[in-house]
Specification:
It contains 14 helices and seven strands. The mean pLDDT is 97. By secondary structure, it is of the alpha/beta class. It has two domains: 55 residues, 5,6-Dimethylbenzimidazole Phosphoribosyltransferase, Chain: A, domain 1 (Orthogonal Bundle), CATH 1.10.1610; 271 residues, Rossmann fold.
Length: 349
């Protein structure tokens, strides 16, 4: 049975505080609109935080990890064993995202939603295992309904933990060998674009490997017939445990009134599924960067999102989002700390 919490109302950004922030932007010592997207970010945060002078001092990065049975079909340049090895690397602080999270002084945790091998108890790793990886979606559904709802719940609980810790921003990351294949399958169904346009190199496939990946995705879609009008069906049939967890994480974040910074291709596919479920969710999202994965721009367009930076990144883990966080902090600081024309005694145009 579909969890009732999926349909609970989202928080509503304060239009009153957005307007106050817009008015303040017009009084700051700069030509109107001259700070571009940074101005919009500050206004968005004002609405999310219900105050004219927003701040961004606390955030949390949550990386969801899970394995994919479709790896058996040769869709990745790396072996599946890398997933659990990377979970251990996260725990030790040796991964790109852990370095970035430490630099940002962000809270950090990994949620094991279903790696093929159970890493056992590890510092900073929450065990919310749904299974030992998904089934091979090219031969049948990636997961059953019970697993889907459990993965969504794992994401929900991660957002609740962040809320209890008082964070002002949540960032979702992912780790799972084969998950660009699942993300491309979800994206292909939800956008209506062919797998050939959505599939990319992932961990480093050559052109032959990418072509095979597209064929496998098409085979999975043909085998499972996911309904584009039913995002939960799409996640269950051709998605992954970490993708479903991310979708639950995003929905719950907005229900709790916490804005979301979406990372790259994989997390955006989960975000698109979540937005298809709850269209108003898009009002709580920022999009960090434009991934080198070729399907990412189409996913962003489907949501109506704008990437903040383009650094030719495609690592995942939440790394692109972490790199974009300083922009958000600067946007809030500029808005709240700049002088107005009246305060500075500067003539206004």
């Amino acid at each position: 049975m579909r969890p009732e919490w999926l349909d609970a109302p989202l928080a509503e950004p304060s239009e009153k505080h957005r307007q106050e922030a817009l008015n303040r932007q017009g009084q700051l010592t700069k030509p109107p609109g001259s700070l571009g997207v940074l101005e919009k970010i500050a206004v968005d945060f004002a609405g999310w935080q219900n105050k004219m002078m927003p701040e961004l001092e606390s955030l949390k990065v949550v990386v969801f990890a899970g394995d994919h049975g479709v790896v058996e079909s040769g869709v990745s340049a790396f072996p599946q064993s890398v997933t659990v090895e990377m979970v251990k690397n996260f725990s030790r602080g040796g991964a790109a995202i852990t370095v970035l999270a430490k630099h940002l002084e962000a809270l950090f945790e990994v949620v094991d939603v279903g790696t093929a091998n159970d890493p056992g108890p590890l510092p900073g790793v929450v065990s919310s295992r749904v299974g030992a990886g998904t089934a091979d979606m090219s031969k049948g559904a990636a997961m059953d309904e019970k697993q889907l709802y459990a993965a969504l719940e794992a994401g929900r609980q991660a957002a609740i933990r962040g809320n209890e810790e008082g964070v002002q921003l949540l960032v979702g990351g992912e780790m799972g060998i084969g998950n660009t294949t699942a993300a491309a399958a979800v994206g292909s169904v939800l956008t209506g674009l062919s797998p050939a346009l959505m599939a990319g190199p992932g961990t480093g496939l050559d052109s032959t490997g990418v072509a095979n990946k597209a064929l496998i995705i098409q085979k999975a879609i043909d085998e499972n017939s996911p309904d584009a009008k039913d995002p939960l069906s799409v996640l269950r049939k051709v998605g992954g445990f970490e993708l479903a967890a991310l979708s639950g994480f995003y929905i719950t974040s907005a229900q709790l009134g916490i804005p979301i910074l979406v990372d790259g291709f994989i997390t955006t596919s989960a975000a698109l599924a979540a937005v298809k479920l709850r269209p108003e969710l898009a009002d709580w999202m920022l999009f960090a960067h434009l991934s080198e994965e070729p399907g990412h721009s189409a996913l962003l367009a489907a949501i109506g999102g704008q990437a903040l930076v383009d650094l030719e990144m495609r690592l995942g883990e939440g790394s692109g989002a972490a790199v974009a966080v300083p922009l958000l902090k600067m946007a809030c600081s500029l808005h709240s700390e700049m002088a107005t024309f009246a305060q500075a005694g500067v003539s206004q145009g």
